[in-house]
């Protein structure tokens, strides 16, 4: 019996159960036996390099049902089903879940599609039949032998309840029509996105850099197929003008940089056919906060990728080129090469 199945059986029998619970548990055990036997037959010739079939994926998803302990189903969501809670749940989703499940929660992100089994479509009837309490348990504990990690250390219990409210407000594929409130929220996630709602778990929030678009330019760069403008907030600009880091002093807390990348393209219509910015690619962010980011040189780092087709930003992830980890230390390894310059590569351009 696979490890997931053995673990699920153990969970089903935690504590003393009532007669009703024992009946439900027996049904779980019977279902588990069928799933286990069928998986054993189907997966005999399965290899890690082979994408799972639809049947295998369905069975793997069904197995998730029996990993949820009976106790989880008895919990109640303490938060109201209000527009405010659902909106806050959407923010949690965009900051922590969209990288795998996609901005529309349909599991169509590159990273999610590459998983085995693929990340689930949260709009699907299979997910929607789970209660708030069951969704809470899955998010907090994860599911072994799938790409679903435990978020217990990153997403608070309160935010997990908000996330459950949001997931249950997603439009279902079989719904001919939905309330006007739900499409409005989903549409906001896909076409009228507020990028400032994005946040890296335990790291930078895009909102910390609100207004960066109008910051002064520190310098520009052209590296390979990308053109970039490096911008700085007033604290950063004043530090440069004071001689930092050339004078050996560190940048002060509150100094911020934003590096906007565009895909480089040649404009043959202009004299000399110059290389100019094409579609936006991403925004890299840095903030000096020596207490908050003491273990990464005093700097917090973040990468937010931009999709020109949808007009949306998302968190950088390990599937990007170059790979980006979703944490506050993103970029720190690279910046250690300029530790003597307080981890800052860019010099203030003469003007």
């Amino acid at each position: 019996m696979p490890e997931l199945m053995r673990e699920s059986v153990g969970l089903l029998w935690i504590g003393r159960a009532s007669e009703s619970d024992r009946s439900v548990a027996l049904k779980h055990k019977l279902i588990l036996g069928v799933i286990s036997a069928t998986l054993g037959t189907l997966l005999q010739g399965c290899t890690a390099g082979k994408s799972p079939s639809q049947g295998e994926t369905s069975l793997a998803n069904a197995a998730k049902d029996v990993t949820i302990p009976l106790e989880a189903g008895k919990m109640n969501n303490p938060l109201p089903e209000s527009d405010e809670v659902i909106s806050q749940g959407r923010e949690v989703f965009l900051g922590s879940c969209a990288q795998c499940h996609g901005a529309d929660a349909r599991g169509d992100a590159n990273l999610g599609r590459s998983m085995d089994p693929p990340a689930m479509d949260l709009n699907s009837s299979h997910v929607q039949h789970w209660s708030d309490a069951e969704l809470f348990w899955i998010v907090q504990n994860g599911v072994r032998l799938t790409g679903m990690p435990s978020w217990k250390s990153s997403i608070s219990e309160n935010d997990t309840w908000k996330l459950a409210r949001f997931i249950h407000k997603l439009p279902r594929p079989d719904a001919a029509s939905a309330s006007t409130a739900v499409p409005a929220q989903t549409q906001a996630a896909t076409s009228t996105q507020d990028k400032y709602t994005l946040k890296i778990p335990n790291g930078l929030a895009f909102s910390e850099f609100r207004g960066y678009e109008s910051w002064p330019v520190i310098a520009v760069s052209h590296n390979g197929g990308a053109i970039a403008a490096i911008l700085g907030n007033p604290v950063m600009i004043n530090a440069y003008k004071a001689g930092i880091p050339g004078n050996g002093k560190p940048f002060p807390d509150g100094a911020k940089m934003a590096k906007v990348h565009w895909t480089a393209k040649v404009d043959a219509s202009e004299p000399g056919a110059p290389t100019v910015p094409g579609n936006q690619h991403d925004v890299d962010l840095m903030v000096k906060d020596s207490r908050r980011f003491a273990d990464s040189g005093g700097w917090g780092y973040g990468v937010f990728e931009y999709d020109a087709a949808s007009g949306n930003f998302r968190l950088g992830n390990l599937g990007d080129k170059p790979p980006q980890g979703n944490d506050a230390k993103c970029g720190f390894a690279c910046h250690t090469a300029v530790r003597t310059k307080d981890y800052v590569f860019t010099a203030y351009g003469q003007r």
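The beta strands are 217-223, 226-232, 256-266, 275-288, 299-307, 312-315. The longest helix spans residues 19-42.
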